[in-house]
Amino acid sequence: MLIRSISGLRGTVGIDASGLSCEVVSRYASLFASYLGNQGAIALGYDGRKGGDLFYKCAAEAIRSAGCDVMMLGVVPTPTVQMAAEHGEGVVGGIAITASHNPSQWNGMKFIAGTGLFLDADENHALWDLVDGVGSRTVPIESFGNLLDGSASIEQHLELVLTIPFLALERIRARKFRVVVDAVNASGSIIIPRLLRALGVEEIIELACDASGIFPHKPEPVPGHLTGLSEAVIKHKADFGIAVDPDADRLVLIMENGEPFIEENTIVLAVEQVLKHLDEGQRVVVNLSTTRAVEDVAALFGSEVIRTPVGEINVSKRMKSIGAVIGGEGSGGVILPSVHYGRDSLVGVALALSALAECPGTISEKKRALPQYTIRKSKIDSESQDQIRIILEKLEASLAGKSTSVNREDGLRFEFAHSWLHARSSNTEPIIRLIAEAPTAAEADTLLEFAQASIA
Asked: What is the C-alpha separation between 269 and 100, in angstroms, rounded?
C-alpha cells in the first residue's frame, strides 16, 4: 500500500508488490531532483528504522544519476534535514526517508523545498504529476552528482537550538534535573541526550537510545505506548521523561509520578514560555485539532491564535505569512521560527526545560496550573473518498443547529460553548479521525460517543 498526501509518501514494506520499494524510492527521488531543476544539492537523511539505510542509498544514487549532488546526513531527525535544506550552502531541497510515527513495516519520504518547508498541496501535486507522467530521468555519467559530507548538520542543529532567546540555562543547571529519554532507538537516540547535556541536565537515563532502529514498542509517542518510560521515571525518581517519535519532530513528556503530561500540553507549555518573554499583540498558529488551551494561554498575554487545516506545512506557511512567533500542533509538535519553520522536538525540549526550570514545583504541579481540558480521540476505517463524504454528511446532519459554528477547511470542526469536535480524513492513514475536547472527561466522552452513534 502507498499513500500520497500533504505529508509526503508513505507505504508498507515487504508486504505486497504495491508497497514501498527501492524502485519506488528511486523514482520519486530522481523526479524530485527534476522538480527542483536538476541542479544544486539535495539534503538527504533517514530516521534510522530498519530498512531505511537501503532506501537512503537508493535515493542517493537516484539523485546523483539525475545530476544533483547529495548532502549525506545519515541518521538524523527530520527537522535536521529541514534545517540543512534551508541553511546548507548550495542546497536546493531535501528528502527525509521516514514514516514518522507509523509502525516498523512502514517507511516513506518527506519532500522539502529549499525554504526548509515541506511541499504544500499544489507543490506535491506537481511532483506527483511528474512521477505519474514520465520515467526516471538520468544524465550522462560524466554529469552525475557527487556525495557530500553532511555530518556537521547535527552540530549546526544543536547550536541553533541553544541560541533560542527564551531559554533559562542557568536555572536549568541549578535545578539539577534527572531525565529519562525514550527515543524509540531511532533518529533522536544521539541528538536528544546531547542536547540535554548541553542545556545543563545533570543526569540522563537513556531508555531506548541505541540507534538500532528496532522499536521497543509501537513508535507513536502516545501514553498507551509509553508504559516502559513511565515505569523508568518512577524507578529512577526522575523529574520527568521525554519521548520522541522515530523522526524526532514530536515531543511527549511523562511527569514525575509516571503519568502523561499529555501531548496537547506540550504546545501549550511552549507557547506560554515564548509569549511571557514578549510584548502583547503576538500571533500564534496551531491546527484545527489542537487544544483550545492555546487560546486561553495566548489571551493571558494579549496574543491572537490562528487555526489552519492539519498538516505541518499548513501551520508553517500561515506562520510565515503573518509573522507568528510560535506555532505547532497538539501531537507534541513545536515550531519556532527563530530556529526554523518546522516541528522540532529539540526546540520543544529546550522550551519545556526552561519553562519547568522557571517554576518552583514539579512538572505535575505545572500541569495543574495550565488550562484544564480533556481530549478524546477515535478513528474509523475508510476505504474510499465516497465513504468519507457520506460519513461527514451524516455527522453534519446530526449536529446541525447544535453547534455555534462549523469550520469546513479540513473535514468538519464543530464549535460549542466550551467544547469542540473535529472529524477529518487522515493525511497518513486510510482512516477518519474523530477528536473531541471538553472541560471534563465525561463531557468529551459524551460528545465523542454522540458523534460515533451519528455515523454508525
From this structure: 23
Cα–Cα distance measured from residue 419 to residue 436, given in angstroms and rounded to the nearest whole number: 7
Quote the pLDDT of residue 428. Answer: 65
396-431, pLDDT tens digit by residue?
888 878 889 999 999 999 999 999 999 998 876 778
- C-alpha count within 13 angstroms, C-beta hemisphere, residue 163: 10
C-alpha cell belonging to residue 197? 547535556
Q: Under 8 Å CB-to-CB from 348, ≥6 apart: which residues?
A: 250, 251, 266, 270, 332, 333, 334
Specify the amino acid at residue 339.
Answer: V
The whole-model pTM stands at 0.93
Strands 304-308 and 283-287: parallel
Question: Quick one: which of 305, 288, 315 has its CA closest to 436?
Answer: 288
Q: What is the per-residue pLDDT across 318-362, written as a single tens digit (0 to 9) for each?
A: 999 999 999 999 989 999 999 999 999 999 999 999 999 999 999
Spans in the chain with pLDDT lower than 70? 135-136, 383, 428
**Residue keyed to cell 505506548:** 225
